[in-house]
Amino acid sequence: MSILGLKKKQPKTFKVKVITMDAEMEFSCEVKWKGKDLFDLVCRTVGLRETWFFGLRYTVKDTYAWLKLEKRVLDQEVPKDSPITFHFLAKFFPEKVEEELVQEITQHLFFLQVKKQILDEEIFCSPEASVLLASYAVQAKYGDYDPNFHKPGFLAQDELLPQRVLMQYQMTADMWEEKITAWYAEHRGIARDEAEMEYLKIAQDLEMYGVSYFAITQNKRDTELLLGVDAQGLHIYSPNNKLSPNKSFPWSGIRNISYSEKEFTIKPLDKKKEVFKFYSSQLRVNKLILQLCIGNHDLFMRRRKVDSIEVQQMKAQAKEEKARKKMERQILAREKQMREEAERAKEEMERRLFQLQDEARLANEALLRSEETADLLVEKAQIAEEEAKLLAHKAAEAEQERQRLEVTAMKTKEEKRLMEQKMREAEHLAVKLVEQSERRLKEADHLKQDLTEAKDAERRAKQKLLEITKTTYPLIAAYSSPPAPPEPADFSYESASVRLDFKDSDMKRLSMEIERERLEYMEKSKHLQDQLKELKSEIESLKLEEQQQQQASLYGLHGEARGYVQEPVYIPHSNRNSAYMSQMAFFEEV
To answer: Which UniProt keywords apply (predicted)?
Structure first.
C-alpha cells in the first residue's frame, strides 16, 4: 500500500451562512450533517443553551420552512445557493418571558426579533405603547440619559417607531424624539438586560405577539379564514381582523390534531364538543402548521412539569449571574458616583484654584493701586495740611468778620431802635399836627363865621346909622336954637366914617391872613404826610437790608468753613440815615 493510500479522503462540504438578529456567520458543513448538527453548531457559536425556542428558517418558493433537526440538511428543500442562507430565529414564544427566558442571550435575541416585528408592523402596537417600547429600546442601547451627552437629534438615525404610527400623527421627528426622551429619562439606573426584559414584558401583552398566521378555509366553498398558532393554542380569525379571534382552542382543551393532505382536524378533549375541521391549499403549509402545533403543544406541556436538571442549573446559574452582575453594577455605580464626585471635586478645586489665582492677581493689582493711592494720599495729606492752615487763617478772619458783623448788627439794632423811636415820635407829632390842623380849621371856620357876622352887624349898623342920620339931621338943623357949628358935625361923621372904613379894612386883612395861614398849614400838613410815608418806606427798606446783611454774614461764615470767605456787603450808616435825619430835622422845625 502506498503512502497516498494511507491518507483519509477529505469529506465533501458545503457552505452555509446563518443570519442572526445581530450578526452573520458562515460555516463549512459536511454533506452528511443533519439539521441538528448545524443547529447545535450555531447555538454553540452564539452561546445559547435555551435551544428549544429557536430554529433555522429558510425560504422555499413563496413561503418559508423550518430546518428539520432529524433529517440531513441537503435532503431537505433548502435553497441550492452557495452558501445556503438560514435565519436563526425564535420559532416558539414563551407564555411569560420573565419566568421562562433564563439566559441573557436568549432575552437579547427575543428582544431584537420582537422589536423588528413591531417596526415591520407584523405585530400591531398602539402609538402610546410604541413610544414606551421605544424608550426602553433607547435605554438598552444608550444606557442612562445624560443631557450633556445626549443632545437633541441623537435619535435621528435610529428606527424606533412603526411607519404607521409616524403617519398617523402630524408630528415632526423632533417632536417624536422629545416624547421618547421624556420616557427615556425616567428609566435611569436600568441595565441593558433589564430594559430588554421590560420591553418584552410589555410586548407579550400585545394581541399579535408570538402568533403565526396561515390562510385557511373551513370547507372548500367557504370564504377564507386565518389560523393563528401561538403558545396558548389555536385561534380562528377573520381575514381583516388579526387582533380578536372568532374562536379559540387552548392546548389544554385539544385532544388530538391530525391532517390528511389538505384537511386539518382538531379534536377537543371534551368528546361532547364538535370536531373542528379546516382546509389549507398547500401541503407544505400544512406540514408547517402541524410542526408548529406539535412544538407549541410540547412546550405547553413542558411548562406544566417540573423543570429538568439542565433548566434548574441554568436558572441557578442565571440567578447567580444576575446577582453577580447586579453587584458589579452596584460597584460600578458606586465607582461611577465616586468618580463623578471626584471629577466634581476636581472641577471645584480647579475652579477654586482659578478663583484664587484671580483673587491673587486682583490682590496684587490692588496692592499696586494701594501703593499708588498711598503716594497720592501723602500728597493729598500735604495739600490738606496746607489747606487746613489756609482754612485756619480764613477761619480766624471769618471769626473777626463775624465779631465785626455782630458789632455792626448790634449797632444796626440800636439804630433801628432809635429810628423806630423817632418814627413813633414823628407819627405822634404828625397826629398832633393833624389834630392842630383840624383845630385850626375849626378856628378858621369860627373866624369866618365871626367875620361874616361882624360884616352883617357892620352892614346893619351902617344902615341904621344912615337912617338915623337922615332922620335926625334936618330936625336938628330946624329946631336947634343955637345952630351948631358945622365943623364939629362933619368931623364926627368923618371920624365915624373913618372908623367904619378902618374896621372894614382890618377885617379884610384879617380874613386874608387867616386864609393864607390855612393854606400854608394845609400845604405843610400834606408835605408832612408825604414825608411820613417816605420815612416808613425807608424804614422798611432798612429792615430788609439788615436781614440781608445778617444772611450774608451767615453765608460768609459757612463759606469760610468750606474753604472760602464771602465778603459781606457793607452799607455806611451815614448814607442810610441822611434822608431820615433831614426829615426829622424838618419835623423838629415844624
So the answer is: Cell membrane, Cell projection, Coiled coil, Cytoplasm, Membrane, Nucleus, Phosphoprotein, Ubl conjugation
